[in-house]
Specification:
Strand 2 and strand 3 form a beta hairpin. The radius of gyration is 24 Å and the shape is globular. It is of the alpha+beta class. It has a single domain, classed as Nuclear Transport Factor 2, Chain: A. It has a four-stranded antiparallel β-sheet, with helices on one face.
């Protein structure tokens, strides 16, 4: 028994020693992304903010304060992690389910997070909705209002529609 434990420990040390720095960074991100989304799911907002830039965290906390009393996050799942060229950046795909206490129908959205390794640690830099229902904690571009239709062609009177 003692010999098996020693052999297992030795193999674990060798396996960790064989990992390249890139593999370690990638493993670290997978762990960090899962933990970050778990903290997000359970509303541990101070911890969530630690993996954001100061400016992004401030904007996020403002959005959160607007909906926190009404929003209930039901579930989440990190569905994939895609590393970019040098493993100092990645996209993380997340499925999230939530409802509002004021409207208790469960909604779904697929989000994509941009993570970057900055000053030796992974940070969630950007998040956007890819599909599904609009999620209140993810900013979306303002919708452009279309220009009103022209009143008519110049030189022509507008005529009432015939009955």
């Amino acid at each position: 028994m003692k010999r098996t434990l020693t052999l297992s420990l030795w193999l674990a040390v060798v396996a960790v020693g064989c990992m390249t720095p890139t593999q370690r960074r990638e493993d670290e991100l997978v762990t960090n992304a899962r933990l970050w989304n778990d903290d997000f799911r359970w509303g541990r907002w101070d911890i969530v903010g630690q993996a954001m830039t100061t400016e992004d965290n401030a904007r996020f906390q403002e959005r959160r304060n607007l909906v926190d009393a009404d929003l209930v996050i039901v579930d989440y799942e990190v569905t994939s992690v895609h590393f970019l060229q040098n493993s100092d950046a990645a996209t993380v795909d997340v499925m999230i389910e939530w409802y509002k206490k004021s409207d208790p129908s469960v909604r779904h959205a697929n989000l994509q997070q941009r993570w970057e390794r900055r000053t030796g640690r992974w940070m969630m830099i950007k998040e956007r909705r890819v599909r599904g229902d609009r999620f209140p904690l993810v900013p979306e571009p303002a919708e452009e209002k279309s220009a009103p239709p022209p009143a008519g062609e110049p030189g022509k009177e507008s005529r009432p529609a015939s009955p």
